[in-house]
Write a structure and sequence with these properties.
The chain is mostly helical and about 150 residues long. Helix content is about 40%, strand content about 5%. It has a two-stranded antiparallel ribbon with strand order 1-2. The protein starts with 12 loop residues before the first helix and ends in a 6-residue tail after the last helix.
């Protein structure tokens, strides 16, 4: 039985837009699964709400040093900021080093240099891999919670 092409969306720009829209919808759904959010689907629109931009992708609390902050710092910072003579005198190789370096003021994200340089894009330096945009929220939440060790 031959099926009518128009029945299945035909060809051309209109079909391409529908397919592209469906792909973006799937991408949004995957993001919701990863970060948690509410999805409302109406006839002509999809609304995605909720989710916590400061929540880490593994679902742990945003204030956890070992589950959230340490992996970011380890991947993007300790290449230069570790050891006996860390870059700029800032040792980020562990929780104690971060606090001893004075770049974090527990409970005061706005006074914490670590947050400022990451949020402003000063660190990591140009040409180096950068942490995901969400990391700024994770760092802010961790500092606001008092920069606990875990």
């Amino acid at each position: 039985m031959k099926q009518n092409r128009a029945q299945f969306g035909g060809r051309g720009p209109a079909r391409r837009d529908r397919v592209r829209g469906a792909g973006l919808g799937v991408l949004g759904l995957v993001g919701c699964i990863a970060y948690g959010c509410d999805v409302r689907v109406d006839e002509d629109e999809v609304a995605v709400t909720g989710g916590d931009p400061a929540a880490p992708p593994d679902g742990s609390q945003p204030t956890s040093w070992s589950a959230t902050i340490e992996p970011v710092v380890s991947e993007y910072c300790v290449r230069c900021h570790n050891g006996s003579s860390p870059s700029g005198g800032v040792d980020l190789s562990g929780h104690a080093g971060v606090l001893a370096s004075g770049v974090v003021v527990p409970g005061d994200p706005d006074a914490s240099r670590l947050l400022a340089v990451v949020a402003d894009g000063v660190m990591p330096p140009a040409g180096q891999p950068t942490p995901p945009d969400e990391a700024v929220g994770w760092i802010r939440a961790w500092i606001a919670a008092g920069a606990p060790p875990d």
